[in-house]
C-alpha cells in the first residue's frame, strides 16, 4: 500500500496564514493530480467554512478519520495556541514578519527542531516597505524560507471561500505569481516527505 504523506501546518501564533496555506496547498495538490485531504483541527473551523461553502475541489474533515482515507497527502490545519509540536515529521510553519509576531515562531521552531522535525518556513504577508519586515524576510529567505508577499488575492479569494487556484480567480492581480509560489512550496513538501518515507 502506498504511503499517505502527512503534513502539519503549524504556528501557535494566531493569524499567521496557516489556514490560507492549508487550503491553497491542498488546491495546488489537485493541480498536480494528487488527491489531498484537509483536516481542520481548529475550533474556529476556517478551512471547514471553505468546504461548507461548496467550492473546494477536495474534502475537508474536522476529525481524523478512523479508517484509512483515500488520499495521497493529508494536510493538518492546526489551531492557534497549540504549543505541542505536531506528531507529523514534515511541518510547514507560516509566519508574518512583523516584529511582535516573530518571537512565537522562533520559540515554536526551536521546539520542533529539538524533536528532529523537518521544518519548511513560509514568510507570509510581508510589507516590503517596512524595513524591519524586509530585514526579517531576507534573513529567513537566506536560511531557506519561502516567501509569499502581502497580496490582495488572498482576501479576494477568501471573501468567496475560494482558493487562488480556482478559475474564478484567473484575472486577479498577480494570481499567477501566488500560484507559482504555493506550487513551489508543495514541491518542497513532496521532496521532504519522500525522504521521510524512504527512511
Ligand atoms: N500573503 C498574504 N497576503 C495577504 N494576506 C494574507 C497573506 N497570508 C495570509 N493572509 C491573511 O491573513 C489572515 C490570517 O490568515 P489565516 O486565517 O490563514 O491565519 P491562521 O494562522 O490560520 O489563523 P488562526 O491561528 O486564527 O487559525 C487571513 O485574512 C489571510 O487571508
Ligand atoms: Mg486558521
TrEMBL record:
<dbReference type="Pfam" id="PF01656">
    <property type="entry name" value="CbiA"/>
</dbReference>
<dbReference type="InterPro" id="IPR027417">
    <property type="entry name" value="P-loop_NTPase"/>
</dbReference>
<protein>
    <submittedName>
        <fullName>ParA-like domain protein</fullName>
    </submittedName>
</protein>
<feature type="domain" description="CobQ/CobB/MinD/ParA nucleotide binding">
    <location>
        <begin position="8"/>
        <end position="158"/>
    </location>
</feature>
<dbReference type="InterPro" id="IPR002586">
    <property type="entry name" value="CobQ/CobB/MinD/ParA_Nub-bd_dom"/>
</dbReference>
